Amino acid sequence: MNEMGTIQSVHAATTGYDVREVRKDFPILQRSIYNHPLVYLDNAASAQKPKAVIDAMTKLMTEEYANVHRGVHWLSSAATKRFEAARGTVQRFINAREDREIVFTRGATEAINLVASSWGRTNLSEGDEVVISWLEHHANIVPWQMLRQEKGIVLKVVPVADDGSLMLEEYEKLLSERTKLVAMTHMSNSIGIVTPIAEVIRLAHDRGIPVLVDACQAVTHLGVDVQALDCDFLVFSSHKLYGPTGIGVLYGKAELLSEMPPYQGGGDMISSVTFEETVYKGIPQRFEAGTPAIIEAVGFAAAIDYVNALGLENIRAHERDLLDYATQRLGEVDGLRIIGTSAEKASIVSFTLGDIHPHDIGTIVDRAGVAVRAGHHCAQPLMERFGVAGTARASFGLYNTREEVDALASALQRAQEIFG
Ligand code: PLP
Fold this sequence. Notes:
The structure is a single chain. This protein is an alpha/beta fold. 43% of the residues lie in helices and 16% in strands. It has 16 helices and 17 strands. A hairpin with a 4-residue loop joins strand 11 and strand 12. Helix 13 packs parallel to helix 16. The site of pyridoxal-5'-phosphate has 13 residues, from helix 5. The site of pyridoxal-5'-phosphate (PLP) has 13 residues, from helix 5.
């Protein structure tokens, strides 16, 4: 057995986490690409799905599918139970107080747009300030710019240091009498930096300012507890958490959600409709107009059950090992520069390689069966901050191995030889 095998089996023996067994749960990992075993390192964009998720969705469609909430028939009531049970699973996963604090959306993007449109339009007026950071995904920039266009609000942006870390003192200086909301990522999708979100929330709350947390990456790689964080809103998507696409979450404190007007109108969100007047349901239904993503909700819950069964602690330790190993191995490749060198990071290595265009890096490693992301990662301002048009990004999930990091390092060495 090689050194890596030994380390992994020691890890498995001490934590019970056996990545070789875990990999068997993901059918797609058994396939090959260009005659190489697939090495999937694009988890920050979207994660692969375990059989438990695929089976839960198939079972619902095969045995218990109907529209929810409206029907009196057996199937509708069975599907409604499963859909609402999924809400409870999400609630427990992020430790929300009540299940009505969980609003199902299409994803994190829609969840932020919901807050900007509903809470933002109601509570913000010209000159009011929203504080974001340089680490944000476009999903947490553009909705606020749209509100700026409409309402004349001001966007303030917290800078990052050369190692990618959030400049907390600068953040504190940006908080003013006019600050009405802080909307910030817990973990950067493009360079993996983890922000001191608990401190960010505390400093905002000291001044009576609510905080929205973009937990798209954090929920998968770190885990979140909304009561411990005391955040006011929190958003994430199922598909990065090994669940299906098409569903995500807006968590909001009940007292905040209850005061917000609906985001969209239609069926399922009303108590009564006449041509003169409509009475809306309470939360969360008033934010879920139309037929929801029923099958996806059930798959989402199965993904959470799967992650819980493996244990977030174990997953975190496994991914930390991969991150440290990748940082070391990639650091040995000539001309490779890692963007985001702060120790406060998780599961993502973003890099440039000499003058090679990130797309060329992505294409060459792809020929070796290695899937990485190449480009600006929906974080163009951050790329600008580091003086690059884009990077190549390897992002690790619960099924990746040290051998896969080695495969990436070898493919990069080859790219360096071809282009360097
Ligand atoms: N925020 C972060 C940090 C992300 O990583 C992503 C997806 O890449 C999003 C927001 C947007 O998520 P979605 O496209 O699932 O709505």
